[in-house]
Amino acid sequence: MTPDLNDVVVFNAVVRESGFAAAGRVLGLPGSAVSRRIARLEDDVGFKLLNRTTRRVGLTEAGRRFYEHTARLSDAVTEGMRAMNATRAVPSGILRVTAPPDDGGIIWALLSGFLIDHPNVDLVLTHTLEKVDLVSQQIDVALRGGPPPDSDLYTARQLFDSRLLLAASPSYLALRGTPTRVEELGDHDGICMDPWAPNAIRRVRGDRSYVRVQMRNRVRANSLATAQQAALDGLGIAPLLHLTCRTALESGRLVEVLRGALPDQAPMWALAPLGRQRSAAASALLDHLVEAAARLA
Q: How far apart (Å, rounded) are the C-alpha atoms in residues 50 and 59?
């Protein structure tokens, strides 16, 4: 017979709390109810799981093996119930979020829309390129670019997947010429994204293979908005995200050069730490980010 999952949760609480009464206090059950559930579980599995004395409760060998295989399941059920209860609550309180430096207003457009829809939520936003520890820093949601994050540590939901490109202003290209081969980039000024490309654009696709090109870095910054503005001001060729410079390209204020020279995509993710009860506000923000990003893209 398949045991009742609730009885398994009670059994694991008894083991963790080393007693029926202590487990009952944690679960909000009287000791007699805990005892009945353990007896029913032992009948269902066909083994004695606990040795009971007047002073302590200990595991039998069968109980030890059963606990080793069900402890994670019990924790997952408990966290799942907490998460479901959180979704029924009204989003409120302080929401701590990290995000990359200014990206042309896209991140703020996502977060501002959420705050307008949820007036009881207050936002603490930290702009950083560092991969901070979400648990130790008590971060609810992190917006990050790059490869897929470690699924053992985070819940990850992809928001965007924008291509990288090289762009410059028409005035710069009129003055310095438009490169037609990647090898010609060495004769141009660059606007690089520290620490993304501190000394050169890392990989440029040439006719036959990837080429590393050393450019004079007129500006080095860790902000897409700053890099784009420097390109608009005619200071050089910048690696940019199509998502953030699309409007400038469409209006002709920026011109893409050597299309396809940058082979990389630049996905952005919304992360939340696993193993911690998520607030109603954090759950609501994750859902909002995915929906709003789809509209923006």
A: 5
Q: How far apart are CA 70 and CA 63, in angstroms?
A: 10
Largest Cα span, the chain: 91
Listed residue (203, 297, 214, 219) closest to 258, CA to CA: 203
| 94-134 pLDDT per residue, tens | 999 999 876 667 888 889 899 999 999 999 999 887 888 88
CATH 3.40.190.10 location in the chain:
93-161+266-296, 163-264
User: Which CATH superfamily does the domain covering 163-264 fall into?
Assistant: Periplasmic binding protein-like II (3.40.190.10)
Domain with residues 5-88, CATH architecture: Orthogonal Bundle (1.10)
Q: Which residue has the tokens 């408990």?
A: 78
Contact 181, 207 (CB under 8 A): yes
Q: Is 80 helix (H, G, I), strand (E, B) or coil?
A: helix
Residue 4: enclosing H or E segment and its boundaries?
none
Q: Which has more pLDDT, 265 or 258?
A: 258
The pLDDT value recorded for residue 196 is 47
Q: Which CATH architecture has domain 93-161+266-296?
A: 3-Layer(aba) Sandwich (3.40)
Name the 3-class secondary structure at 188: coil
pLDDT value of residue 242: 85
